[in-house]
């Protein structure tokens, strides 16, 4: 009799243990490389569980992120009330081919009938997913939705003289991770000075999948008043809802100073800027004539005189541009004028102090703009004074 009771008790324990099941559930779909695959890990348990641990396995074949906290609830399964465990995972295949997920082991600590505890491991068999190649030659970018927001600080085709345009582009994509988003595009033109702010990337989790945001910002300043056009930037992506390739676009924008067009369509009077330009051309012609006369007398002395005249403060237009940018209190224009000034000095073989733009760069790209006081006028005066001090030292030596 005792043996029969022991055997019955053993069969009951084995039956309960076999009732514990763990499965990996994947949708019946045909994802492409980079597309999110919703994976659900489901456990059905009859035992009283005191502790549990489940680690989702990593792999070189996919990226993954858990979408929400684990769910535990009571549910009737085949007429029995069971404790149901669920974990939702977003899986992103890195390449095409057969993708294997698992096996998984749920380590359980169950409460025994006599008050003790027992360890029970429940195993889920591996599942396979057939992944199709990404349907384009571009880097894989698959999402349920992708939007582009282009914000401009001022109308780009009507800039005031010396004004800088701040362009901020925001990409939002649902159903992908940050590293699948494209890199920042280059905005470069021969007539344009461009500075970039640090890129911002972030991902927020939602029940239907992660939502990723990328923010790019440029500070754009034309070198001349002549208008131009910044070309559009195409971003190819795969729409997982329509199952088609689409193209998002950062639109093209016209770019230039409003005064350029006004100067071409004005009345019979010449604008002050054109008068100044004409005077500069006349002065340059006069100086060129003098140089030609002197060089005819002696080539060596002509070259020396040419260098002296080029180094003369009276013929240094970059100094005027520096002071004008400082008066406008436009740091990006001041940065461009400073580069022109330093380039001229390097071209003429004049000394240039190291770190000449350090204070200005900190003022432009500080994490908290305005946290440190910066006076454009003092910066320009110090820059010019530093040049004179270095020149005088070389003369004395």
TrEMBL record:
Keywords carried by this UniProt record: Membrane, Transmembrane, Transmembrane helix
Taxonomic superkingdom: Bacteria
InterPro entries referenced in this protein's UniProt entry, alphabetically: BatD
PROSITE patterns: PROKAR_LIPOPROTEIN
Membrane in keyword set: yes
Transmembrane spans: 275-299
Name under which the protein is recorded: BatD family protein
């Amino acid at each position: 009799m005792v043996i029969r009771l022991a055997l019955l008790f053993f069969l009951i324990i084995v039956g309960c243990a076999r009732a514990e099941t763990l499965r990996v559930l994947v949708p019946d779909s045909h994802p492409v490389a980079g597309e999110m695959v919703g994976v659900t890990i489901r456990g059905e348990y009859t035992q009283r569980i005191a502790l549990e641990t489940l680690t989702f396995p990593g792999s070189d074949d996919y990226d993954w992120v858990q979408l929400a906290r684990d769910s535990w609830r009571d549910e009737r399964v085949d007429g029995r009330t069971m404790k149901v465990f669920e974990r939702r995972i977003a899986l992103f295949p890195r390449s095409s081919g057969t993708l294997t997920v698992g096996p998984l082991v749920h380590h359980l600590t169950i409460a025994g009938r006599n008050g003790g505890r027992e360890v029970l491991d429940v195993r889920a068999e591996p599942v396979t997913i057939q992944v199709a190649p990404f349907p384009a030659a571009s880097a894989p970018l698959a999402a349920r939705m992708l939007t582009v927001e282009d914000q401009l600080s001022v109308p780009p085709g009507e800039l005031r003289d010396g004004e800088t345009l701040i362009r901020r582009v925001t990409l939002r994509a649902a159903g992908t991770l940050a590293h699948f988003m494209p890199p920042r595009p280059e905005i470069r033109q021969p007539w344009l000075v461009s500075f970039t702010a640090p890129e911002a990337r972030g991902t927020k989790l939602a029940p239907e999948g992660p939502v990723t945001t990328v923010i790019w910002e440029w500070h754009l300043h034309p070198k001349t008043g002549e208008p131009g056009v910044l070309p559009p930037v195409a971003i190819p992506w795969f729409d997982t809802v329509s199952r088609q390739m689409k193209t998002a676009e950062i639109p093209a924008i016209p770019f230039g100073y409003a005064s350029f067009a006004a100067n071409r369509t004005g009345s019979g009077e010449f604008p002050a800027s054109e008068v100044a330009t004409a005077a500069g051309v006349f002065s340059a012609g006069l100086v060129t004539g003098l140089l030609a006369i002197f060089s005819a007398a002696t080539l060596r002395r002509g070259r020396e005189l040419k260098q002296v005249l080029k180094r003369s403060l009276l013929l240094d237009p970059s100094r005027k541009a520096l002071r004008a940018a400082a008066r406008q209190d436009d740091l990006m224009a001041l940065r461009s004028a400073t580069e022109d000034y330093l380039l001229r000095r390097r071209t003429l073989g004049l000394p240039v102090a190291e770190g000449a733009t350090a204070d200005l760069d900190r003022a432009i790209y500080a994490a908290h703009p305005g946290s440190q006081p910066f006076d454009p006028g003092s910066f320009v005066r110090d820059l010019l004074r530093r040049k004179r001090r270095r020149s005088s030292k070389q003369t004395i030596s």
